[in-house]
Specification:
- The complex is a heterodimer.
- Chain A is an all-alpha fold.
- Chain A is built from eleven helices and two strands.
- In chain A, helix 1 packs across helix 10, helix 2 runs antiparallel to helix 3 and helix 2 runs parallel beside helix 4.
- The longest helix of chain A has 32 residues.
- Chain A starts with a helix and ends with a helix.
- Chain B has one domain: P-loop containing nucleotide triphosphate hydrolases (Rossmann fold, 3-Layer(aba) Sandwich).
- In chain B, the strands form two sheets. Chain B has a six-stranded mixed β-sheet with strand order 6-7-8-3-9-10, sandwiched between helices.
- In chain B, strand 4 and strand 5 form a beta hairpin.
- The two termini of chain B are 33 Å apart.
- The chains are: A mainly alpha, B alpha/beta.
- Chains A and B meet through helix 6 and helix 7 of A and helix 2 and helix 3 of B.
């Protein structure tokens, strides 16, 4: 039971990162590799600041701001200097590795201060692992609420239009460059915030903890879409949370079956590949079934 | 009367290693308010490049563009979009597929204006949108449909409505019926003509359809190799037969 609660707790916290990734991957319609650098950036920023005596909330705020700056760097390369988005993300991600090392001063650091966000504000009084669920629900609710409000503003609609059809958006006078900056900055801000939360939950920050986070985020998004296809944008944000929890549960089951933890990233990639291929497999299956019926 | 649009000595050159090509070759053109100018020409004649230069999608190599007497040559696409709207040939080019018909119309309603951090007020605009599509059977009751679910004809009709929902000073139609089946093309062309006349719009329409070129508009231009080789007013145009136009291709 404790294992399931812990898994659900992880699903909630990681879904925040997936929501951040959703802004670039689905709304702006491009894959942003920056997240593999902004995630550890948030982690090292939060841990460094907490270790330096700052409050946990302040550390998360700064993690968010730094994440926005990482997004700004990618947006500048992509939207101003016309570097292809994949390359722009990889460049920022690579640069972030050195910056993260500079911030942390070493490759990893443990949180030795007694306080972290998971044992403050009364969360420590909750049963084991429920603090993660409660905190996750609170943060997700706030982020989804703010995102829905933003996406329903004229500016938010302009961001959606930019990702949907840039030619049309530009011909309607929308400054698509600014919209890409907004999307990338908010996205990476949220991803870095999640990095800060995960570091506090795990009790350490490591400059390598960003490896593979894009796969985790995409899995949550895709699983959510497979379970709940054709839903409005606001509902889709909630499906990401469900997708993230389902993904974590699948991983837990796989590990319970006796797979080696060293194979976790391989398993993650296979799960994502299966989810991505599922619509095609389903279509092929239905086609075969229809043809089979016709033959009969 | 001040011309609505003046194009002066417009040149657009494409620079190649071995050969430079003038897509627009010293074009001079004046369009009066309420003119409905039909533009004909072979592929590569420079028609779309001329529209690109007017909207600001593509900069001129040299020359000037004036709108209502004001030089807009150095204004960007966003600034020009306050006055100029355009419908493209591809039905997919003019709409956002993952937004609903109403959301697309609302985006177009703020054409050229800054996108603020204000709530978009979709519900408040619904009566106006319903009125707008009320006489269009293809889009009736489709306001909440995602645009990607619409047919090419429906999407192009929506693109056209988006272009005129805020009355543009200049409407540019870039073969906007070319990708549609004959009946849908005819329906959209009739709607286009009706709206242009009712709203007294100034319009430039590119087409390859000679019968449409003869039937619609009060002025006819033929472009060839980046130059205007024929410019007829309504009276001159009416004297012309469709087959007479073939010699210019």
């Amino acid at each position: 039971m404790n294992l399931i609660v812990s898994t659900i707790s992880q699903g909630f916290i990681w879904s925040i990162m997936a929501i951040g990734l959703f802004i670039t991957f689905r709304i702006l319609d491009f894959p942003d590799m920056t997240v593999e650098g902004s995630f550890p950036l948030g982690a090292v920023t939060a841990v460094s600041l907490i270790q330096a005596g700052h409050s946990t909330l302040f550390s998360l705020l700064i993690a968010f701001v730094f994440g926005c700056l990482a997004g700004f760097a990618t947006a500048f390369l992509y939207a101003k200097l016309n570097v292809p988005i994949l390359l722009a993300g990889i460049l920022t991600m690579t640069a972030m590795y050195s910056i993260n090392l500079r911030i942390l001063g070493k490759a990893n650091m443990s949180l030795t201060k007694p306080n972290n966000i998971f044992n403050q504000f009364g969360l420590d009084k909750l049963p084991t692992n429920f603090n993660g669920i409660v905190l996750g629900v609170i943060v997700i609710t706030v982020i989804i609420f703010l995102l829905i409000i933003f996406l329903n503003t004229e500016k938010g609609q302009a961001v959606i239009a930019t990702g949907d059809n840039e030619t049309m958006a530009a011909s309607l006078g929308i400054n698509t460059t600014v919209m890409k900056f907004i999307g990338l900055m908010v996205s990476n801000g949220i991803v870095a915030l999640t990095g800060g939360l995960i570091a506090q939950q795990n009790g350490f920050a490591d400059v390598n903890m960003g490896i593979g986070v894009i796969v985790i985020g995409l899995s949550a998004i895709i699983i959510g879409e497979v379970i709940y296809p054709d839903v409005p944008l606001s509902v889709r944000l909630i499906t990401i949370v469900i997708g993230s929890i389902v993904y974590r549960l699948i991983l837990m089951i796989v590990l319970q079956l006796g797979f080696n933890t060293n194979d976790l990233k391989l398993i993650s990639a296979i799960i994502l590949a299966l989810c991505l291929a599922l619509p095609t497999i389903r279509e092929q299956f239905l086609k075969t079934m229809r043809n089979g019926v016709k033959t009969k | 009367m001040t011309p609505l649009l003046e194009i002066k000595n417009a040149v657009k050159t494409i620079y190649n290693d071995d050969d430079n090509l003038n897509i627009l070759n010293n074009i001079n053109l004046t369009i009066k308010p309420k003119d409905f100018v039909v533009v004909l020409g072979t592929n590569g004649a420079g028609k779309s490049t001329l529209l690109d230069a007017i909207t600001g999608t593509n900069e001129l190599t040299s020359g000037k563009i004036l709108l209502n007497g004001k030089d807009i040559t150095d204004e960007n696409l966003a600034k020009r979009s306050r006055h100029i709207s355009r419908v493209y040939q591809d039905p997919k080019s003019g709409t956002a597929p993952r937004m609903t018909v109403a959301e697309n119309l609302l985006l177009a309603k703020r054409r050229g204006l800054p996108r603020r951090l204000h709530l978009r007020h979709l519900k408040e605009n619904m009566p106006e949108f319903k009125e707008l599509i009320s006489n269009l059977p293809t889009l009736d009751n489709r306001l909440n449909t995602f645009t990607e679910k619409l047919s090419g004809g429906q999407r192009q009709t929506l693109s056209f409505l988006m272009a005129i929902i805020q009355k543009p000073e200049l409407l540019l139609l870039d073969e906007h019926t070319a990708a549609l089946d004959p009946q849908t093309s005819k329906d959209l062309m009739e709607l286009t003509n009706k709206v242009i006349l009712e709203k007294e719009l100034t319009c430039m329409m590119i087409t390859h359809d000679l019968s449409d070129a003869m039937k619609y508009g009060n002025r006819l231009l033929v472009l060839k190799k980046g130059q205007i080789i024929l410019d007829l007013n309504k009276t001159e145009k009416d004297k012309l037969k469709e087959k007479d136009l073939l010699q210019y291709f």
